[in-house]
Amino acid sequence: MQDEKRENRTEPQEVVSWYVRPEGQEVVDCYVQPRPLPSGAAPQTPREPEKRSRKGLWSFLIAVGVLALAVVAATVVASLRGGGAVPPVDGGTGDGGDASSIVNISGAEKTTIPRIQGEAGVSLVCTAPAGEKLSIQDMYEKVNPSTVLVVADKGEQASIGTGVIMTADGYIITNAHVISGGKDCWIALDTGYTYDAKLVGYSKERELAVLKAVDAVDLPAASFGDSDLCRVGDTVYAIGNPLGVELRGTLTDGIISAINRDVQVDGRVMTLLQTTAALNNGNSGGPLINEYGQVVGINTLKMSGNGSEMEATVEGLGFAVPISDACFVVNDIIANGRFRGVPVLGVMVIESTDNGGQVSVYTVSEGGGAEEAGLLPGDVLLRADGQTLHSIHDLMAVRRTHLVGDTMTLTVLRDGQTFDADVPLYASED
Question: Same structural domain for residues 289 and 398?
């Protein structure tokens, strides 16, 4: 059957082998690079990209690990653990970053991209939309320069994905599976300029990685929105490099078709945004964008058929990591080189409309930070770190500014008395 598929394939022409995962269920196209990438250290300043032949470019396309494509009927080929707060419950699940990433050439594949330590004070910040909605053309002109091609050199193979510029000095967000197994890494701007990239850190289970473009300055950083404000039916767009180099900068559109979608494969779960925007190999790590030109998700995977009659019936099922959840992961990676887990208060809270919006403690988790700080069920939370709380969303927005080990100061109303409680933030349990 595999031989038959090989013979029938017409694009691209550089298919030389098929890779079958150890589980024996998922078949992924594998392309061998006709010539190795240049070895050794490349110049550390922006440079014009080398001219590559069409054949050489296509050798990169749809490299294993670029975007999760399922060939198992009606399932997602990702193995992910999710997180993020789903009101009214505080917290999400954390991970130690040790599980296999979603598309791996080998479970034992080791990423040896040179590392770099994240800088103090650098963080991903999510903000609510402001101003008017943009036209599609204006949105593309705004975000496309912030979208980069990510190439992870694996020796005889290369993995191609997409990334989003987070800061002007070169911090870049992408998917963990894009760089999995990489030995070296570089990124290319929409202008064609390339930079060598080093690895700040990654979380395989959360499917996020942070890169740093070496000696980058004045890069066009993206604007990041608040995915907690997304609603089903919202128009969204995806920009990326489907099928790799020659279709880079492709724009697709769709809607948010579900929020807080739990995707489960192999016993692991992640809570994702579901979208109808077309995603394909090479889109991994790229931005899912709202109508204000803000990045609200990191495109990660899609559903597909089983290669038979079902293949034509499964479409428009793409998934992205909500950027509000990504904040915890990205900021922890920058600060510590790894993701230690989502910081949680250790409470379940409820929201009422009394007095213009009121957040109250419903239950207190045993052994959590809230119990340690003396919070009780029925306590009304007035402020968090000095910010007035009108909703659970307000509380979650403040929590996103913290990491595991931090302390959040809550102003509490109890029996007519107001006091401050310093709540230590511990990592959520898996």
Answer: no
Q: Strand 294-302 vs strand 223-224: parallel, antiparallel, or unpaired?
A: parallel
CB 321 within 8 A of CB 261: no
Of the ranges 42-56, 70-84, 334-348, which is most confident?
Answer: 334-348
3-class DSSP state of 315: coil
Which has more pLDDT, 54 or 156? 156
Tell me if 191 sits within 8 A of 249, measured CB to CB. Answer: no
List the domain range (segments joined by +) for residue 412: 343-425
- pLDDT of res. 351: 87
Write down which residue in 336, 364, 393 finishes a domain.
336
Number of H helices, E strands in the chain: 7, 23
Please give, one letter per residue, the 3-state secondary structure of 212-253: EECCCCCCCCCEEECHHHCCCCCEEEEEECCCCHHHCCEEEE
Query: Cβ distance 153 to 126 under 8 Å?
Result: no
Distance CA 120, CA 251 (A): 34
What type of residue sits at position 26? E
Looking at the structure, do residues 157 and 279 belong to the same domain, yes or no?
Answer: yes
Q: Are residues 208 and 116 in the same domain?
A: yes
pLDDT score for 312 = 52
Q: Which residue has the tokens 């789903």?
A: 86
Kindly state whether residues 152 and 259 are assigned to the same domain: yes
What confidence tier does 419 reach under pLDDT thresholds 50, 70, 90?
very high
Domain final residue, candidates 336, 357, 381: 336
| 3-class secondary structure, 311 | helix
Could you tell me if residue 370 is inside a domain?
Answer: yes
Place of tokens 């559109």: 253
332/406 same-domain check: no
Q: What is the pTM of this model?
A: 0.69
SS (H, E, C) 148-201: EEEEEECCCCEEEEEEEECCCCCEEEECHHHHCCCCEEEEECCCCCEEEEEEEE
The number of distinct structural domains making up the chain is 2
Does residue 175 lie in a domain region? yes
> Is residue 32, in this structure, part of any structural domain at all?
yes
Q: Read off the pLDDT of residues 6-29 as tens digits, 9 standing for 90 and up.
A: 343 323 222 222 222 233 332 223
Domain-embedded: residue 430: no
**Average pLDDT for the chain:** 75
